[in-house]
Specification:
Blueprint (H helix, E strand, L loop, with lengths): L31 H4 L11 E5 L5 E4 L7 E6 L2 H13 L3 E6 L6 H6 L7 E4 L15 E6 L15 E7 L6 H7 L2 E4 L4 H11 L3 H6 L7 E5 L4 E5 L4 H7 L7
Length: 245
């Protein structure tokens, strides 16, 4: 079957297909030199946890459709900043802690009156019912030897375990975590962490000299030093960055 053609215009060739000829407009095009001006500063989705060595935002994608575990060897200040910022992205925060008094002011102030941060005794975190529309971050602040948690990571429910120092359970937690954060530790701890995480000699040595608020975040493939800088509101609630509690 042959393709139908439009009637031939006087002095013009036949056109294939049906329909009216649309209006003539210039092409939407830019030169190669102008193309760079169209770039947009789009980064990863998630929670901004600070800035990297070049001053660029460092983003932690903590709300995920798959189980996600994080171990942070550091101070409660950094864990609380992470809790506030994760709550600001719409996550519900469940804090499992044996020192509720250290978290009470934060839980009362967060969410603008909405109960977005809840506190629970160790071993008493109830099922959270996490979903894509209501992700959950469980922060386990249970001391040097946290017991195995009743609530574990799952779809849209991440678990962050805070350890004040390198404890006997730390190697196990670090190996099973998708992300490990390390703040300032002793030289002996730094050497041990370097072996566990396969850090370079320079990275391991730096761990004992990190400033307050600086964390080395490690995944299977990436290493990144991040400075967490508090906003005015965070400083008013939590005080200045500190490693020791």
């Amino acid at each position: 079957m042959s393709t139908p053609t439009r009637p031939t215009r006087p002095g013009g060739p036949a056109r294939r297909g049906f329909g009216l000829i649309g209006p003539r407009r210039g092409r939407h095009a830019v030169s190669l030199d102008e193309l760079a001006s169209l770039g947009l500063p789009v980064g990863d989705d998630g929670t901004v946890i600070g800035v990297d060595a070049e001053g660029r935002p460092a983003v932690l994608g903590i709300n995920r459709p798959t189980p996600y575990e994080v171990t942070l060897i550091g101070g409660i200040w950094t864990a609380q900043v992470l809790a506030l910022r994760a709550a600001a992205t719409g996550a519900r925060i469940a804090v499992e802690t044996g020192r509720a008094q250290a978290w009470t002011s934060l839980a009362q102030a967060a969410g603008g009156g909405q109960p977005c941060i809840s506190l629970h005794d160790v071993g008493r975190v109830p099922p959270q019912g996490a979903s894509a529309g209501s992700p959950v971050v469980v922060i386990r602040d249970c001391g040097m030897r946290p017991p195995r948690g009743r609530v574990v990571s799952g779809p849209w429910q991440s678990v962050v375990t805070l350890l004040p120092y390198l404890s006997p359970v730390a190697p196990r937690l670090m190996k099973k975590s998708a992300l490990v954060g390390i703040q300032r530790v002793s030289p002996d701890e730094a050497a041990q962490i370097g072996r566990i995480m396969n850090l370079s000699p320079a990275e391991a040595q730096a761990l004992s000299t990190l400033a307050d608020g600086v964390t080395l975040w490690c995944s299977d493939r990436d290493r990144q030093f991040v400075m967490t800088q508090a906003t005015d509101a965070e400083s008013g609630l939590l005080g200045a960055a500190r490693r020791m509690d």
